[in-house]
Amino acid sequence: MEWIEREQAAKDRLVINKKSSSVKKERRGKAVILGTALLIILATIAITLFLVSKGLQSFVVNGVSPIEFISSTEWSPSNEKFGALPFIFGSFAVTVLSALIAAPLGIGAAIFMTEIAPSWGQRILQPVVELLVGIPSVVYGFIGLTVVVPFIRENVGGQGFGLLAGTVVLSIMILPTITSISTDAMRSLPGGLRESSYAVGATRWQTIYRVLVPAASPVLLTAVVLGMARAFGEALAVQMVIGNSRDIASSLVESTGTLTTIITLNIGHTTFGSLDNNVLWSLGLILLIMSYVFIIIIRYLSSRRKI
Amino acid sequence: MNAKMTDKLATAVFVSMAAIIVTVLAGLLGYIVFHGFPKLTFDFLTSPPSSFQAGGGVGPQLFNSFYILFLTMLFTVPLGLGGGIYMAEYAKPGRVTEFIRSCIEVLASLPSIVIGMFGLLAFVNLTGWGYTIIGGAFALTVFNLPVMVRVCEDAIRSVPKEQKEASLALGITHIETIRTVLLPASFPAILTGAILASGRVFGEAAALLYTAGLTTPRLDWGTWNPFSESSPLNIFRPAETLAVHIWKVNTQGLIPDIREVADGASAVLVLSVLLFNLIARIAGSYIYKKMTAQK
């Protein structure tokens, strides 16, 4: 009896037998897996379509002028004036400023980990970077509110709320992104590059500055762009420290706003479908377009990767 | 200045940059734990918040955070696993694969507030549910999916090729090979990745503001029927999570002890994320050792 069972089992496993359960199982498994892959495509297309059609409503249905929308500085929903320039400017300003602080620090830390103290430096900095990634953005906002804002108020001037506070908070938030990708970039450089530079008598600084950083530059730039993308889209941490006024920032310590902060504050308080609400979706559309722009920049950079 | 001096100076600059980063983290953690830890009493962690008086807790918020995290992972783990298996095992190089990869990239780079806006449109208004736990969990699924797909794909790809080929050579079908060889071998990496992703989901707030909402109804901790209005398990009730609560008390709070509540809640969040990190490391290496019979 036993040998019959064994033979049947062997037959079941033969792939040639189309009716066997294992072929059916294979097909079923493949269908499920293909389904989840399709769901990813579906989600991406749905998000893009929904937000684009909703974001265009204020222009198409309500007749807001797109040119005025992105060029006027007057935002007063009660007078039906929708000039989003202060928020667009605010978003770009905090993004660029925080990248200016975080990029040198992050790339510097990456170089420290790979070139200066590869053993102990990495053992300390690696977990530090991982933990910084893990701290939730509201906690960064809360720290900004209780530490950074009072510090600026007392030492720099103004109310404390403003671009400067936003920049400080965001640069700490994007630091781990820039550091970890830069570290990977520096580490994946071929060792021969380093050694041949040392062999011709270059000092460590000369090697870093003239050989390693130029060789890794496309990836280092990618790291900075990814950090900027994160800064551009961050909502709550910035909202808590930037002051949320509707005026274009005239100084670093004056209260202002960004695309994300005005959306966060108002989308829950305006009636869905009203003009006041529709213009917020148009601001969301700008966020969506910008995240596509960041992806295109990253694609371009990675096609230029030298090594 | 000669080359050697410049080199020394540069080294000093790099060392100080690393020191700045370590100091920032130490300062952050120290500040949060120092201010928040004394507030973490049993009463604070279990009692409901009060809207006007001092002395409220974060009990419902803490429960909501874990409940939404649980639901999100319930959706994301199978989906991420499916996507990861597809990308690692079935996807042939070509346009379709390239397109899926682009989609994952787009999803991963969308700001969480944009995902929240999509959630508001799709899971709140279109479905007519209003602010619900399930809507929040769906939004977070979208938020977490690209991360889980990448984790699973990398984990499956890192299984030695010989193991897979040995299984296929024995006449075992592809799907069976995935189930019995590849998945067990990549399990530790997937588990570690999933726990780390949980930390990210646990602290997320922007995607939840307008999907799971800013309020929690009065909960009756005796009702465990998920269809009852006041049951904590009801997935069609609004639910404010801990991260959202920190934002709310700081921006529109009316209670006099905003600072204390925010301190305590921040400490809970940060300590939870630390715990997630720690568990991920320990669990990952423990299971790996167990499975590979390494001492």
Q: How is this fold's topology laid out?
A:
The complex is a heterodimer of chains A (307) and B (295).
Chain A: H1 2-13, H2 21-60, H3 66-71, E1 75-76, E2 81-82, H4 85-116, H5 120-134, H6 137-155, H7 163-187, H8 191-199, H9 204-233, H10 236-242, H11 259-266, H12 275-303
Antiparallel strand pairs in A: 1-2
Helix pairs in contact in A: 2-12, 4-5, 4-7, 4-9, 4-11, 5-7, 6-7, 6-10, 7-9, 7-10, 8-9, 9-12, 11-12
Chain B: H1 3-36, H2 42-46, H3 59-90, H4 95-109, H5 112-126, H6 133-157, H7 161-169, H8 174-203, H9 242-252, H10 258-292
Transmembrane segments (chain B): 12-34, 66-87, 99-123, 129-149, 181-202, 267-288
Subcellular location (chain B): Cell membrane
Main location (chain B): membrane
Describe the structure.
The complex is a heterodimer of chains A (307) and B (295). Chain A contains 12 helices and 2 strands; from the N terminus they run H-H-H-E-E-H-H-H-H-H-H-H-H-H. With 307 residues, chain A is mainly alpha-helical. In chain A, strand 1 and strand 2 form a beta hairpin. The longest helix of chain A is centred in the first third of the chain and has 40 residues, at 21-60. The model of chain A has no long low-confidence stretch (mean pLDDT 86). Chain B has one domain: Orthogonal Bundle (MetI-like fold), CATH 1.10.3720.10. Chain B has helices spanning 3-36, 42-46, 59-90, 95-109, 112-126, 133-157, 161-169, 174-203, 242-252, 258-292. Chain A: It comes from Alteribacillus bidgolensis.
